[in-house]
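Re: the request from the purification team.
They wanted to know what the chain is likely to look like in 3D before they choose a buffer screen. I agreed to run a prediction and write the result into the notebook, where they can find it.
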Amino acid sequence: MSNNIVAFIPARGNSKTIYEKNLKLLGGKPLVAWSIESAQHCGFERIIVNTEDSRIIEIASQYNVFTQVRDQRLAGDNISMYELLRSEIFKIDPVPDIVLLLQPTSPFRNHTFVNIALSYLFANLEKYDSLVSVEKVPDKYHPYAMILENSPDKVILFRKLIGLKEKLVSRITGKKFVGPSLSGFSISQRITRRQDMPQCWLPDGSIYIFKTENLKKGSLYGEKVMLLESEGTININSQEDWENAEQIIQNKS
């Protein structure tokens, strides 16, 4: 794998939803180790685990991958992924042209699928700024079928599919909103026929590949995003998700 791309694994030690999630053993190994192994299977020469936790640094050293020590101010719950990437990616020497973001919360990503995603984006770098793995939204959960509650001042709130900020922020701050989003419609404007609803996908959390220069423009996605549909994979964000992951491993055994 070329030096102009880096596999970046953000893994803070503290987690409120699942206590010390990235350190917790899943299938006999720490959660963060699954993403490290995935990057190694893909043949990456540069794999960087970004963390503030000495125990995660030790795990990374056991796999012979680089670590980047995160400042404690970037380890809080209120820090967005964009803020972290904007701060840390440009500290890498040499700074990569392309970043493959592997979140530890997706332990079962298929490394063959990762390589396919990489090949698609590299073949279309002149047309696209990033690639995101997605899964199709079931018709019953389609956003065009949802009814959103209006705020007290009658401003329809906006729900984000892929984006860093609510569009409502732009009204308050006057700053341009960056990143695609889905808007809610009042019940009188709702599309009622399933056949009339546009195709809709949701990021599955397993693969984000983006040009580093996107971060300087206020988004990791850039202007043109390639969506690559996957067969769906578990994304561990709750205790129920963790239990489902353990069940998957048990079933495979």
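For the purification team: The longest helix spans residues 239-252.
Please add any questions underneath this entry.
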